[in-house]
Amino acid sequence: MLTIAVAGNPNCGKSALFNLLAEGRQKVGNWPGVTVDKKIGMIRHKNLDAKLVDLPGIYALDAWSEDERISRDYLLSGEPEFLLNIIDSTNIERNLYLTTILQEMGVKMLVVLNMIDLAEKNLIGINLEQFEKELGSPVVAVSALRAESKSIIINKIAELLKTENKPQPVPVPSEIENANEEVKDELLAEWRYKRIENIMAKSVKKGIPTYAESDKIDKIVMNKFLGIPLFLLVMYLLFWLTIHISGVFIDFFDIAFGAIFVDGVRHVLTSINTPEVIVSILADGVGAGIQTLSTFLPITFSLFFFIGLLESSGYMARAAFVMDKVMRTMGLPGKAFIPMLIGFGCSVPAIMATRNLENKRDRILSVFMVPFMSCGARLPVYILFTAAFFPNNAQNVIFALYMIGIVLAVATGLLLKGTVYKGSLAPFIMELPQYHTPQIKGAAINAMFRLKAFIKKSGRILIPIIAILGMLNSAGVLPAVGKSIVPVFTPIGISEENWQASVGLFSGLFAKESIIGTMNSLYSQDAEKEQKEEFSLVEKLGEAFVSIAENAKALGTKIKNPLGFESSKEDAYLFDNMRKAFNNSSAAAFAFLLFVLLYVPCLSAVAVAAREVGLVLVILQSLYSTVLGWCLAVIFYQFVEGHSAIRIVEAALILPAMVFGIVFYARKSGRFG
Amino acid sequence: MNRIISLNPGDKAVVERYAQGIDRAYKLKLLALGLTPGTEFTLIKTSPFGDPIEIELRGYRLSLRRHEAEGVLCSQ
Ligand SMILES: Nc1nc2c(ncn2[C@@H]2O[C@H](COP(=O)(O)OP(=O)(O)OP(=O)(O)O)[C@@H](O)[C@H]2O)c(=O)[nH]1
Ligand SMILES: [Mg+2]
Fold it and tell me: DSSP letter at A641?
């Protein structure tokens, strides 16, 4: 089958077109360096069957960062038989530099002038015929936002495949080929750009200044005094909207999934005389687990939706630009700020995003810092606990946890910068794109994709874990296992009877969402059930739909209890059990949350990080953050409530010892790059 | 001969040549981005914290750190 590679500068819309052509779901965002890996899709069209490969953006074939290397190596591998060279029509001149280099490879190629909608808006006049002639390669002009672009591109490729139309490389003049090494690079680049300037002069009319609108926005966003407060406001708004909008739908999922998977399953199983043990495992264990997880569907969707809006606006590149000086104090370039922001959604793509950094050590340092950003999976744990223990103060407590994570990330950066990395910084070269109107549809598609991933993960990891733990529980094994781990956690305020909490932490190793699912089903399971009312699925589902309307109406007055928890009997009952288990101690609950924030990121994050920086470093990172989390949780709990001087001293000794050990190893091993 | 470091927002300058000792990888990237000898650019603004800077060339915007761009010699 024919292999087509998508090549072009960063941020010219390669992935957007890839998604259109191959019906892919690649992430799209308005900053350079979104795609960091080779991605394969299929074009299935009546005129063309082909393999399409999306690549990270590059400016030339000399590679700087990991993602550029992937692109270059693939383009030079000889595997692609056809090149789809994407060009940003609002920035043709610079984009053509790569085109001229690709032409020299002598592979069949179609040049795609993308973002033609923006070029039209900016009154850039392109004489296509003339442009094609001057350039010496076939050209089409499209917009990834328009559906008809798909057939325009595919038909053109099909047409080109029938001819023997290879680009004719323009030979490099011999005086440049033979020039002195000192000046050869300059002369070659100058010669290429001269050719491009010539093409531009003959076929492209300049439009209105393309950055006029962006400049207006930047006046505010990058203002000395407004810039930072505005950034904080944007982040606050992002979480506020996420919590409140998902709050409208939470009861719906809670009631509907509860009706189907708990009451419904129980009803059906009981009616066919299933033994009570099995009913209990399936309905109250697995069913309750599914019910809890389902309530996080709206949060997951909203969080990724709003992050997606931000990503498509062009704000991320500005954040990197503004934060460069701040990040530099930690020895990182401003670009490293982008993975941190993505980390508020999920550590996995955030760790992937570090590939865009040029230095290996910057990538390692970022991988150490990213897990401290509270990800979307930790948010539900915070929400459940704050609803039970800090009902009047939930937002502040959650905010405090986020801030603690950020402060510790910065501290980690400073620590490693001060001890392990003393060398120089990678140079900073970054293109600043224009602002785009945030893509609601694109953000929704991206969020749906994340949602599906969450559901898949639930099906494959979370629900089986909850089921197994439920089974172990009813077999009476779990309390014993839980109790055997508890001693580790008694210093942070988890009492011996509260073995459910340590089992929850254990299940959180696999994925942090499962902490909630597990604890919920464990806390609800072992207490005796109230008398069940007559079961009616239809009635329950009706109730579920009504809840959406009611919550939407109540949105304005719900600030205090954002997630509408404690609105149902089951929740009140669950909260009661949680408070009992934690001996009504909000200090213990907070210490628990601190530990949840900091201990080992989930298995998928560990696996991805291992691929990026190697297993040894990831184990070190997990060790570092877990010990850090434990020590801080102990110190906090003992100060506020436990009042055991020995425990405090113990933690206060372990912490620096661990830090010292890691720094010592880092220096000795040379693994940190 | 001028250096980028001494430009103010709004100033235009033309790239003359690259300093002798400049890191080759850095130079290659700037060349690919269009900062070839003879190219005119405008310093648009500096970041709120003073560095990096934003320049406009060939119709698009690029950000660089002042002291790293020292090796780009230009005239006003
Ligand atoms: N208006 C408009 N926006 C577009 C078009 N194509 C892409 N975009 C937007 O431009 C931005 C960059 O698109 P991507 O597809 O992520 O670009 P890319 O070339 O894959 O970028 P990297 O992966 O960073 O190399 C996104 O915000 C897109 O929504 C287009 O034809 N018109
Ligand atoms: Mg991409």
Answer: I
Give the CA distances from residue A226 to residues A70, A76, A237, A314, in Å, rounded to whole numbers and listed in that order. Answer: 39, 46, 16, 18
Min Cα distance A39 → chain B (Å) is 25
Question: Which ipTM value was assigned to this complex?
Answer: 0.96
* Cα B59 to ligand 1 centroid, rounded to whole Å: 18
Report whether A68 contacts A20 (CB < 8 A): no
The whole-angstrom separation of Cα A223 and Cα A88 is 28
Measured between CA atoms, the residue of chain B closest to residue A10 is B33
Look up tokens 């047409």; give the residue: A159
Determine the atom of ligand 1 nearest the C-alpha atom of A31. Answer: 24
Supply the mean pLDDT for chain A.
Answer: 87
Asked whether the beta carbons of A326 and A319 are under 8 A apart, the reply is no
B53's torsion region: left (phi>0), alpha (psi -120 to 50) or beta? beta
Dist. CA A446–CA A218, nearest whole Å: 26
Pairing of strands A125-126, A2-8: unpaired
pLDDT in tens, B13-56: 999 999 988 889 999 999 999 999 999 999 999 988 888 999 99
Instruction: Please answer yes or no on whether A97 and B17 come within 8 Å at the CB atom.
Output: no
Contacts of B42 in chain A (CB under 8 A): none
- In which residue are the tokens 């940003």 written? A88
Domain ranges of chain B: 2-75
Domains and their CATH numbers in chain A: 2-205 (3.40.50.300)
Measure A95 CA to ligand 2 centroid, in angstroms.
15
CB contact under 8 A, A94 and B33: yes
> How far does residue A14's CA lie from ligand 2's centre (Å)?
5
Distance CA A46, CA B59 (A): 40
Radius of gyration of chain B measured on its C-alpha atoms: 11
Local confidence band at A209 (pLDDT 50, 70, 90 cut-offs): confident
Nearest atom in ligand 1 to the alpha carbon of residue A116 is 31
Ligand 1: atom nearest CA of A16 is 15
User: Which CATH code, of 3.40.50.2000, 1.10.490.10, 2.30.30.90, 3.30.70.360, is assigned to B2-75?
Assistant: 2.30.30.90
Q: Of B26, B47, B60, which is closest to A322 when you measure between CB atoms?
A: B47
Shortest-distance ligand to the CA of residue A84: 1
Number of H helices, E strands in chain B: 1, 6
Q: What is the pLDDT of residues A82-126, one digit of tens each?
A: 999 999 999 999 999 999 999 998 899 999 999 999 999 999 999
Report the pLDDT averaged over residues A503-515.
83
Select the residue from B58, B64, B73, B74 to test the A interface by mutation, using most A Cβ atoms within 10 A: B58
**In contact, A480 and A532? CB cutoff 8 Å:** no
Name the DSSP letter for residue A9. S
Q: Range with the lowest mean pLDDT among A159-163, B4-8, B43-47?
A: B4-8
Percent of chain A with pLDDT over 70: 95
In this structure, the residue with its CA closest to atom 32 of ligand 1 is A115
Whether A454 and A330 have beta carbons less than 8 Å apart is answered as no
β-pairing, A204-205 vs A125-126, is antiparallel
| Contact in structure between B18 and B27 (CB atoms under 8 Å) | yes
- In the reported structure, the alpha carbon of residue A154 is separated from the centroid of ligand 1 by a whole-number distance in angstroms of 19
B33 touches chain A (CB under 8 A): yes
Single-letter code of the amino acid located at A617 = L
Q: Distance between CA atoms of A426 and A331, rounded to whole angstroms?
A: 9
Both tokens of residue B62?
Answer: 């690029």
Strand ranges, E, within A171-223: 204-205
Measured in angstroms, the CA of B68 and the nearest CA of chain A are apart by: 7
A contact test, residue of B29, B40, B46 with most A CBs within 10 A:
B29
Chain B residues with beta carbon closer than 8 angstroms to that of A190: 36-38
Please give the helix or strand (H or E) that residue A397 lies within, else none: helix A394-419
